[in-house]
Amino acid sequence: MTKPLNIGMIGYGFMGRAHSNAYNRVSDFFDTEYTPVLKAACARNAENVQAFADNWGYESIETDWRKLIARDDIDAIDICVPNNLHKEMAIACAEAGKIILCEKPLAMNSEEGEEMCQAVEKAGVANIVWYNYRRIPAVTLAKQLIEEGKLGRIFHYRANFLQDWTISDDLPQGGAALWRLDAAAAGSGVTGDLLAHCIDTAIWLNGGVSNVSAMTETFIKERKHNLTGKVEPVTIDDACAFLCHFSNGSLGLFESTRYARGHKALYTLEINGEHGSLKWDLHDLHRLDYFDHRDEGRVRGWRSIHVTDGDHPYMDKWWVPGLQIGYEHSFVHQVADFLESLSTGKPAGPTFRDALETQRICDAVLASAESGQWTDVG
Amino acid sequence: MTKPLNIGMIGYGFMGRAHSNAYNRVSDFFDTEYTPVLKAACARNAENVQAFADNWGYESIETDWRKLIARDDIDAIDICVPNNLHKEMAIACAEAGKIILCEKPLAMNSEEGEEMCQAVEKAGVANIVWYNYRRIPAVTLAKQLIEEGKLGRIFHYRANFLQDWTISDDLPQGGAALWRLDAAAAGSGVTGDLLAHCIDTAIWLNGGVSNVSAMTETFIKERKHNLTGKVEPVTIDDACAFLCHFSNGSLGLFESTRYARGHKALYTLEINGEHGSLKWDLHDLHRLDYFDHRDEGRVRGWRSIHVTDGDHPYMDKWWVPGLQIGYEHSFVHQVADFLESLSTGKPAGPTFRDALETQRICDAVLASAESGQWTDVG
Amino acid sequence: MTKPLNIGMIGYGFMGRAHSNAYNRVSDFFDTEYTPVLKAACARNAENVQAFADNWGYESIETDWRKLIARDDIDAIDICVPNNLHKEMAIACAEAGKIILCEKPLAMNSEEGEEMCQAVEKAGVANIVWYNYRRIPAVTLAKQLIEEGKLGRIFHYRANFLQDWTISDDLPQGGAALWRLDAAAAGSGVTGDLLAHCIDTAIWLNGGVSNVSAMTETFIKERKHNLTGKVEPVTIDDACAFLCHFSNGSLGLFESTRYARGHKALYTLEINGEHGSLKWDLHDLHRLDYFDHRDEGRVRGWRSIHVTDGDHPYMDKWWVPGLQIGYEHSFVHQVADFLESLSTGKPAGPTFRDALETQRICDAVLASAESGQWTDVG
Amino acid sequence: MTKPLNIGMIGYGFMGRAHSNAYNRVSDFFDTEYTPVLKAACARNAENVQAFADNWGYESIETDWRKLIARDDIDAIDICVPNNLHKEMAIACAEAGKIILCEKPLAMNSEEGEEMCQAVEKAGVANIVWYNYRRIPAVTLAKQLIEEGKLGRIFHYRANFLQDWTISDDLPQGGAALWRLDAAAAGSGVTGDLLAHCIDTAIWLNGGVSNVSAMTETFIKERKHNLTGKVEPVTIDDACAFLCHFSNGSLGLFESTRYARGHKALYTLEINGEHGSLKWDLHDLHRLDYFDHRDEGRVRGWRSIHVTDGDHPYMDKWWVPGLQIGYEHSFVHQVADFLESLSTGKPAGPTFRDALETQRICDAVLASAESGQWTDVG
């Protein structure tokens, strides 16, 4: 018999959909002791949240998140709202003893993040942050191969996250679907939205970062603001790039932008070690490229691994070899692993504390871009 | 308010899972008047079918398909069983007035198929066959581009379906998961299993086939048979290739095998016209390659279209640009279109009658391979 | 000290340039006992052949090929003229005791080819046919890997040669640069021009062909003829495809056309064996794709081998790893190997006799297309 | 009638071969007023340089470069020696009124480079530096497209040059073929050897660089030195990466290393503009990837342009569409363009003065890596 895990969802945007889908699907494919039950969805606009609840099968709605948190029939809260609201909600959840699944980035900055960590640790509630790319099977496979030592000593890590959706100067900023373009809601631009993903994967695969040298740019300086109706200065970074040293002595290079024509959501990573290298990108997320220098010389080459076999991470749960899964499945995997962690008591990462490390690096990146100095990660 | 479409599922194998998933998900993403309700699952083994029903949320089970068909609370039957059972079940369904969703290939041969067509047409019941690849967004986009005339006069069509899972001579044949290796259950080997998919897409994209010249091969002549426990002759075709003429004057080349190392499920198609060409394959199903000869000469090149934008077929229902969907979504799309067809009364293809055309070509292919002669499609 | 090999070249077209370049370059990169000396170029038009001779450094010209063959200061004749002239010239060369390097295909048909073989064998003169693709390093590497048994038992071989340069119906046929479109000069269309290349490589890599079933097509039925100035029926095959059985039990599939938009000179081959597979194409001729099923399961994948290392065939003679060579180098390699064969007395293939086998298969293909029957290779 | 350009070559290493090949081949393919004549090769070791001269057809040898420069029968000197010798030789050449073709990088640093520029400008001698990648046809095509405005406003430029040949700690440094690993001879490691190439192309395509923030790393700290026989500290940079701002407001990201497993000589560049993007890499140097945002939305995609057509830069001189040329051809093109510049009097870039700009950026990069500060380009 499975046990219910009663979910309260705050927010109903793109991520609200992705998470809801994951809760609904996980039990069709994974055997877990706990089964998510969509108990309530919460947002200020009753009509919108009701439509969302109807679509995904939430049993009820709330329009005040504090009421949601106060409900006894809710075990876990999913925080799917703009970044500037994470801290207050997460701390309230912790104090109410709720399990928390929080959208990334953890917080507006590492000070907020530290408060949140302390709150969940004090309360002893299970917690996780939605850095979903760790659970793309090809990325999880990369983690396995690195941990097994297949690459040996690491020399280089590089990652990009390239998009092109904000190039038009007609695009407004702020409010609703565009809160990511407003620093007041998002904290930063591509740094927190995109580079945070790259950093989370990087530190998972390659360990901590010591220091950074960064630059940011805002190509279009003013845009109409949806909340005020006026043309206002753009406060976010449109692009950010940084150099860094990892603690293991390897060099890192990261870049993110929303001004790279031809790239919709091209998250690319590569890691080079003495024995081999790995490459992956989000536009062909079901493949992992692997170079093994220990192959016989004449037939060495980058292998394009079609990560769809039963012995690949998570893939025994889905279809048959050769048949791709997609983006949304990374969320299903995260829910499956999180449910498993509730049974075993062994946390599934990234916890708030793990995600705080990413936040610290983001903070150092933004500080370095501001000061023009190499900056240690706090 | 949506209306329920009460589904009775016969079978619980790989396709049973794929279809059930599609029924469960369609309403989360598509607005349809009808909503599938998983009313009953049916198979001879009660324990197995109960586990299947529990997993996917079927409300009840049956162990006798005739009882399932007799139930008043069932609107539509999904026939997900070996090919040798399609005809009898489909005709019984039609006679009971049930809507039918039948796995491909339609039947063991075109004589059976013709009987099935006459049954559904006489009964006037909606019907469809699960040639799901038409509804991979990249394939649907190819259909749009061809219909718009972007390729002009067509000269060539070629398609492969390459697998490598039966190369080991230790693999037994027949029974349970391996019925596809037993001609008594499957009718043929790769011809009905794999080439039928290639043919369905081809005639959808490029029209009818006039005649064929084929060869088949069975590389491993004897295998242990699961149903008898004895080593018995292998009766299926391990590989099949054929040349053909399309009615529009273009030339076709088709090949399928389960003996092509390195290819798990590589369905590839290409079509060449006077103005341009299209290529697609199942291992990167979210991309369509397009060459437009009318581009400026110096910058002509094959375009790799990442079919994940809102203006691509079906993709406005899913995530945001750049984020892939996978194999299973083709079934969701098929259900969505079929539900829509129930509302509009305009059939969604491939109907039984459409699928009979594929069956006729398969029959001609097998006859040609047997006789060594060019064979007209009946 | 090196010995001169005095070359007489007949013809000055595209292949005349490619061969001349090979003669001029070979000694800069390969250590050979013999060094080609460009003694004389021959063609009917004195002005044109003089310009050609000046460009490439031929010491003299002739306008009558019989005079060229009669010269005592010529050791070897390179026959670079339309196919209908090969037989007469080659037999005359043999009778004059000249070494012969003959453009492919060997002859108009296998009867002619047989006469040519008998002539060179009777005369005991060294001979070779310019099937240059054997000596693309990636293709030579494929040969090595197959001979070492890396693929095991072979199941499938497939090859295409796709072009798109004759789609316009404004293109005339015949004469000068367009003799390949005139069956009177070329013998056939794509069969002798393109498929002959595919067949030569195939039988080198995978052994003999037993029988074939073919189809040909001429999409544009009439074109202006350059020699008559009149619109005349097109006598060549624009496209040809065939199925075949190899002597080793594997299945073959070949296709060639000049009507495949987007493909300039896309010669592609793939071979599938029980342990692995190989793929190569002419548009990225410096790469060989290799799949080794004996790799560890999780990290199996097609390897893209960048064939530019010192341990790859021929590549120790050129630059450093990572730096590509191109199409023309295949001719340099052929000259180098042929010069070596003159020193060792061990023939470098394909000899006339080897090339006759390709001719026989082409004849069977054309006969099968004509008769609509499976046809044994004579 | 063509005029001779008598060449004196100093050095006989890898680049000596590449340049000699270019001189020998240019007139077979390009119509130029001047024709290179290989008059003399010069190096200290008489035996080695004689062998080199014999191989490539140099008429004579010298063992003292000052004697070579003093010869009246030499028009142009090709300086193909380690970087620490460029300045003295180039200035002596200029003073002797010789045309100069100098290997890259121009000098050990920009101070030396400035002296060299002043010398050639004072002497009024034609000069060029062998940044050969500008003349890969795909790169030249990129230049054309950018100049025509096809990309619009530029936002991003990124380039890598990744190799993996120095990872073994058994590899010694210094002397003969390994002078590139010795800062005393090379000035720097990957910065001058590899990044200089990336920078030359970048400023040609995207204009000047304002400032940089760099890091360098030496992964293996000590190696046996060939000149001393002792284990000595490694003085070069094994890896270097930098951020920069271009004068046009776009952001740059550059990285180079000899520690990236799986990459032999992977020079990759990408440029993103408001209307489109371009990508190129040296491992498939005959292709240019182009994304045009102004294509119809549904069929937008990265185009892989096979740069082998007659309307592509330089390609009308070579073979037919679809047939690749290789690395060495970039040198032939450079010679062809340089010969043309001697006729027209319009300099062919990069001149010494052009190459000094690259040197200045390299200096700023090394200074920034040393200081940890953003550094203006001098």
The main β sheet of chain A shows up as: 9 strands, mixed
Largest interface: A-D, 39 and 39 residues
Low-confidence stretches of chain A: none
Share in β-strands of chain A: 25-35%
Number of domains of chain A: 2
**Spatial shape of chain A:** globular
CATH topology assignment of the largest domain in chain A: Dihydrodipicolinate Reductase, domain 2
CATH top-level class of the largest domain in chain A: Alpha Beta
Average pLDDT level of chain A = 97
Give the CA-CA distance, first to last residue of chain A: 46 Å
Give the tally of β-strands of chain A: 17
Secondary-structure class of chain A: alpha/beta
Identify the CATH homologous superfamily of the largest domain in chain A.
Dihydrodipicolinate Reductase, domain 2
CATH architecture of the largest domain in chain A: 2-Layer Sandwich
Multimeric organization: homotetramer
Strand order of the biggest β-sheet of chain A? 16-15-14-13-7-12-11-8-17
Radius of gyration over C-alpha positions of chain A, nearest whole angstrom: 21 Å
Helix and strand element order of chain A: EHEHEHEHEHEHEHHEEEEEEEEEHHE
Amount of helix of chain A: 25-40%
